[in-house]
Amino acid sequence: MTTDNIDNTDSESEDWQLVPDLIHLNHAAVGPWPQRTKLAIQAFAEDNATRGSLNYLKWVETETELRKQLKTLINARTSTEISLLKNTSEALSVIAYGIDWQPGDNVVISDQEFPSNYIVWESLKSKGVEIKYANLDNPDPEQSLITLCDNKTRLLSISSVQYSTGLKMKLKPLGDYCRQQNILFCVDAIQSIGAHAIDVINCNIDFVVADGHKWMLAPEGIALFYCREEIRDSLQLNQFGWHMVEDFLDFNNKNWQAANNGRRFECGSPNMLGVHGLHASLSLILEHGIKHISEKIEQKVNLLINGLQDRPEINIITPLDPARRCGIFTFKSTSIETPELFNTLANKNVFCAMRGGGVRLSPHYYTPDEKIEQVVEYITKI
């Protein structure tokens, strides 16, 4: 299913039809759809518009295949551990309000998280849960998280890649520690899935959450929620509906029970448009292979680093160590204020973002090298 040794041929560019003068370096926000994804959504819309739900069972087949794709992408043991939710925040809320908290329990997170991964935990303060924040700005950020854990720590939650600085965490030592200490380990992988390999078994991860609209190159409104099978039943349910029961097509069954798989967290009708879009996008990612994609992204980020790190006015915020970064490159300049720098690049059709006190560039594997070199030239001439 994967082709990790695929050559860098023109086949990669054939999947994209971006506006020619646009330099899209904002995949860490919302990624563009590949051609096949656009066509899959158009075909789904045409089917729905002309036949209604006549082909619904075929739609369900695509949904089933999507779960298998996501299982492959994160190396889950079975697709029954995969739930399809609306977004990362919903998945985190399912976890946060599914755990049977006791007053005095604590959650360990970092001081660099996107709001999704701290608001949900801070909302638990009303239940007597303490939130501990680790400072990641040091040579061993994993140890900073571990040091804050104690016998009252119920869960450690961390982003696999920090959205502003691009810092990539080493998940295995965190997962190993949590498993040894009976602490639940939650990973917000929205900034890595589709760009870098993640292995839930090897890293002893209990929960993985990630929207499809960034590095997975899919529509907004559909997200992965992985819950390790052994702990699935321990999460209390707070959302209920026809789709989350075991016999969900038996509408007359009054003696319902929650599904014995990941569907138990999907309370209502699925987002079939999102299902078809994410399915198409993941077919592209799995065809090229995550190893190939990761290597290509590293090459793109290296072009930015090599072109800018010797410039005295450039301060690179993203770690230079390849083991500590993924697809995010954040920098600032001492010669121009960040908003002005951002606006100058925007006026040259460079689509990026302001994050972490600097400008964040986030190329994907298909981004043409010449586009990145052009951006480096723009920056050095500002």
Describe the structure.
This protein has helices at 35-51, 56-74, 88-96, 116-122, 141-148, 171-181, 229-232, 272-288, 290-308, 338-347, 369-380, and strands spanning 23-24, 82-85, 106-110, 130-134, 153-159, 184-188, 207-211, 223-227, 314-316, 329-333, 350-351, 353-355, 358-361. It has 2 domains: 13-33 and 290-380, Aspartate Aminotransferase, domain 1 (Alpha-Beta Complex), CATH 3.90.1150; 41-286, Type I PLP-dependent aspartate aminotransferase-like (Major domain) (Aspartate Aminotransferase, domain 2, 3-Layer(aba) Sandwich). The longest helix has 19 residues, at 56-74. It has a 7-stranded mixed β-sheet with strand order 2-8-7-6-5-3-4, sandwiched between helices. It has a 4-stranded antiparallel β-sheet with strand order 9-10-13-12, with helices on one face. It is of the alpha/beta class and 382 residues long. Helix 9 packs parallel to helix 11 (369-380). It is built from 11 helices and 13 strands. The N and C termini lie far apart (45 Å). Helices cover 35% and strands 14% of the residues.
